[in-house]
Design goal:
alpha/beta; seven-stranded mixed β-sheet; six-stranded antiparallel β-sheet; 13 helices
Length: 344
């Protein structure tokens, strides 16, 4: 058994994710549901053979020393994959996300007009948030592709690992991968200003140093796109501020109120046709929102989004109700995903 064979079989079954665990048959996720790829159970020896045969010497050293490894893997003529290898109960484990070669457009993702407007801004910070597997990377890819199609910019991406492979159109694009092209996100960002960037994409803001540098880059006149694993727009603002020491938080609130342009918070849910689609909450940093951030009135942000339709804002609950009204999702799905189902 080889990794290429397992991945090819998963692609043929239209899977989005693949899980290899010792003692279980290979598992795939299709339209959000987990199912076995076939019946053969993976032994410890088979798992080690499958994994180590796919790694080079440097990657084997990282997994043995760090116990975790993220990398991209390609099966020629089939697809690319974002792979995580880890240890669990003393055994190797693997989780992989299938990356389609096609970079979707914002239109294909059914993005509202306000997202086009955000993407066309010359500078500032735009955040795409949500849980793992909600399509954050796909949204960022579509936004970068719009810029690449419409504008002559120098775009630099920092990723772990590189997912969509962009070809330079109107813009020039450099894609840098953690470990192979830079040691850390923070280090890659630290030297970014020497590379004459116009647009910067940060795959994930993971720590204080990365968040601080990202905000600073947005302050210095660049358009910065980044992701966070947060559930809502208000929680995103809270998370960014709370990661800083108390004595720095007032300064960060001020910086964020000036640099933030918008937050797109999304989740994937089951549609009426059985396929998954995105539901989104969108925050636009209007003067009223900026004032709430400065004055640390984060709890009032949700109300401001609810009443901010004229500025392009929408809450997750409002979007779920609209999707149900359009018969794109069932009433039961809408209610199950709403924060306040009593308002349906």
């Amino acid at each position: 058994m080889r990794l290429e064979e397992l991945f090819t079989e998963a692609v043929k079954k239209n899977a989005s994710d693949i899980h290899l665990i010792v003692g279980l048959a290979p598992i795939i996720r299709v339209e959000g549901n987990l199912e076995p790829l076939h019946k053969a159970v993976l032994t410890r020896k088979e798992m080690e053979t499958v994994v180590y045969n796919a790694l080079d010497a440097g990657q084997k050293k990282i997994i043995d020393q760090e116990k975790e490894l993220d990398f991209s893997f390609e099966v020629k003529g089939v697809s690319r994959f974002r792979v995580n290898i880890h240890w669990e109960k003393g055994n190797l484990g693997l989780a992989a996300r299938i990356i389609t070669g096609h970079i979707p457009t914002l239109e294909e993702l059914l993005m509202p007009q306000i997202v086009y407007d955000l993407t066309r801004m010359p500078q500032g910070l735009i955040l795409v948030t949500g849980p793992t597997g909600c399509g954050k990377s796909t949204t960022l890819g579509a936004m970068i592709d719009l810029i690449n199609t419409e504008r002559k910019e120098n775009i630099i991406t920092l990723e772990d690992p590189i997912e969509f492979l962009f070809e330079s159109k109107e813009s020039i694009i450099r894609q840098r991968q953690l470990h192979s092209d830079m040691r850390t996100f923070a280090q890659g960002l630290k030297h970014m200003l020497r590379q004459d960037p116009d647009v910067i994409m940060v795959g994930e803001m993971r720590d204080l140093e990365t968040i601080a540098t990202t905000i600073t880059l947005a302050e210095t006149g660049h358009l910065v796109l980044a992701t966070l694993h947060t559930y809502s727009a208000a929680q995103t603002v809270d998370r960014i501020i709370d990661i800083f020491p108390p004595h720095q938080q007032n300064q960060v609130r001020m910086q964020l109120s000036m640099t933030l342009k918008g937050i797109i918070s999304q989740r994937l849910i089951s549609g009426m046709d059985g396929k998954r689609l995105a539901t989104r909450e969108i925050l636009i940093n209007t003067p009223a929102i900026a004032n709430l951030i400065r004055e640390n009135k984060i709890a009032q942000i949700k109300t401001a989004i609810q009443t901010g339709a004229d500025d392009g804002m929408i809450t997750m609950d409002q979007d779920l109700k609209e999707l149900a009204k359009q018969n794109k999702i069932s009433k039961e799905t809408a209610l199950a995903n709403m924060m306040n189902p009593e308002t349906f």
